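Known limitations

Structure tokens in this collection are predictions and should be treated as such. Users comparing against experimental data should check residue numbering before alignment. To illustrate the layout, the record for histidine kinase is reproduced below. The input appears on top and the generated tokens appear beneath it.
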Amino acid sequence: MTRTSHLIQELEQANSQLLQSEKLAAIGQLAAGVAHEINNPIGYVFSNLRTLTGYVDVLLQIIDRIDDAESLGELRGMKQRLEYGYIREDVLALIGESEEGIERVKGIITALKDFSHIDETTFQPADLHRGLDTTLNLVNNELKYKAEVVRAYGELPLIDCLPSQINQVALNLLTNAAHAIEAHGRITVRTGHEGDRVWFEVEDSGRGIDPAHRPRLFEPFFTTKPVGEGTGLGLALSYRIVEKHGGHIEVDSEPGRGSRFRVWLPVTQPDEPEEARIPQ
Ligand SMILES: Nc1ncnc2c1ncn2[C@@H]1O[C@H](COP(=O)(O)OP(=O)(O)O)[C@@H](O)[C@H]1O
Ligand SMILES: [Mg+2]
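Generated tokens:
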């Protein structure tokens, strides 16, 4: 092996490792968000269960008294004293709210499962909207304080893709959008279909991109974020993923007004590659 090809191989290896670390960073970020999202419903479901335990205790007291009660009047008095009317209403409300909380946790776990096939290498027909919803669900924690999120979905066919990797692209575009917004803004996720291609885009009302930075956006390590906040690898990884799919990314931005990243993807892959590998 010549010295040059050896160097190239080392560079490629270093590059793969970097992309891997961006994935890990994204997963770390995700984990923090998910922990927060799950903690909140678990918190109130737990507190509801405590209250419900108290209510059940009261209801049992009343029922237990039926056999020994001197009179119906006594039971009626007891019902009133123990605020049966209020309990009756609140019980159902608490159960309903708890069910919603559990549903929410279930949703997050389903989304995490979708994300956990992170190293999948087989192209499969997938619903892009589902992927976007999953991703939005997961980054909700990061987005909700920053922006109003608007979904404007078109009609889309299923597309051949590596779903978890497309989710990664969406994740990065969404977090970049959130980072670009200083106080509070709007993030719009749109999709559309043209002939044998589909697209999805993330538009933000953030600070926009300095035209001088435009040519460097997809360079590994290019970041304008402080150390520790940006790796500069998100768009580089996204570029590679989209390229593997035979698609491309369009950028439109106006400093001070916002940016729009549009990802074009083919509906079908030419001939299912046996190993459609994104470097791991
Ligand atoms: N939506 C956006 N608005 C403004 N700037 C952006 C946006 N998306 C990306 N950028 C710019 O591109 C750079 C590279 O993005 P990325 O590769 O995701 O790395 P990172 O987010 O870690 O900085 C960012 O640091 C930022 O300067
Ligand atoms: Mg990024």
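For this record: Helices lie at 3-65, 72-81, 84-116, 128-143, 163-180, 234-244. The chain has a mean pLDDT of 87. Please report discrepancies through the issue tracker.
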